[in-house]
Specification:
Elements lengths: L5 H21 L6 E6 L5 E6 L1 H22 L1 H4 L9 H27 L6 H16 L16 H5 L1 H28 L2 H35 L2
Amino acid sequence: MKKATPFETWLVCFIICIPAIYTATIYPSLPDTIPIHFDMSGNPNGYAGKASLIFIVLLMAAVSIGLYLLIKNLSKIDPKKAATQSPEVYHKIALVLVVFLCAITLIIIYATANRSFNINKLLLPIMGLLFAVLGNYMHSIKPNYFVGFRTPWTLENEDNWRKTHQLMGKIWVPGGILITIGTLLLPFAAAFIFMMSVTALMVVIPGVFSYRYFKKHQHDNNSL
C-alpha cells in the first residue's frame, strides 16, 4: 500500500491534536464540574469533574489513531488483499474519519464549556455530511472485510460488490445531504427520527439490492 507522505502524516497528527490544543486553552477557565452527558433535547443531565474532559479527549484521539492506522494498513491484514488496488481511496477515507472524529470532539468540548449550547444541533448534521462524503468514495472501494458494505453476497462476488457500492454512492451522497439539511431545520426529536429513517433506507436499499443481485445471478448460473 502507498505510504503516507510526510505532509499527510503531519496533517493527520495536527488534526488529532486540535481538540487537545483547544482543551488546553480553555481548561483553566472551566468550572470544577462540567456536563459530560446530554439528554435527547441536548440539555446536560450528567456531570463530572473537569479532569474527565482530558480523558474524553485522549480517548477520542486514541480512537482516531486506531481507525487511521487500521484503514491505512488494510493490505497487511485483509485476507482479500484488495486494498492494495486503490490505496489512495483508503487514504482519503482514513483522513475523512480523522476529521469527523476531530469535529465531534470539538463539539463535545465546546458543549462542556458553554452549557447553553445545544450539542445535538450539530451532531446530526455532521453525521449527514459524513455519509455524503463517504458515499463519494463508495464506487472506488474494492472488496475487503473492513471498509464498505460487507454482506455474504458482496464479499463472495466481486461484481455484486461493485454494483452494490455503485448504488450506495448514488444513494449516500444525496441521502447524506438530505440528512444534513433536514436535521438543521427540524426540532431535535423530529430531526433524530428523520435521520434514522433516511439512514435505514440508505442501508436497507443496498442490502436488498445485493441479495436480489445474488439470487438473480445464482439462478442464471444454475440454469447454465
